[in-house]
User: Fold this.
Amino acid sequence: MTKWEHYALDLVHAGILEIDPINGFIYRISKNDMYGTPEKLKERRLISPKMAGKYLAISFNNTFTERKTKNVRVHRLVWMAYNGLIPEGMQINHINTNKMDNSLVNLELTTPKENVQHSIKHGLQWWQKNLTVSRYSKTVL
Assistant:
């Protein structure tokens, strides 16, 4: 777990962010960060995620210590908000293979091996699509 995932999870527990388990959307429900006194907003505001590689992510920055913006992957934050920390060496898998669907029912905790097996089973490995078997040998080209 990165320090930014920890920070985002702290914001959820402090009542500053709210995560909808049905659709995986993340809302800001307080004006202040966790270091100030939370002041509830009149309406919750949807935080628009952006693409970070193949996954949706929300961005955080701490202008006091770092100038860079850090991304937290939405699927990992949704999982942790409802199931606790992700054990070392484990990954979160999208059951229906749609990385845009971060609903809680679409996420599962897997080992890296299980995650790769799932992606192969559903044809998601880019290199798997280009494999051909030679008819003269048992090798894969």
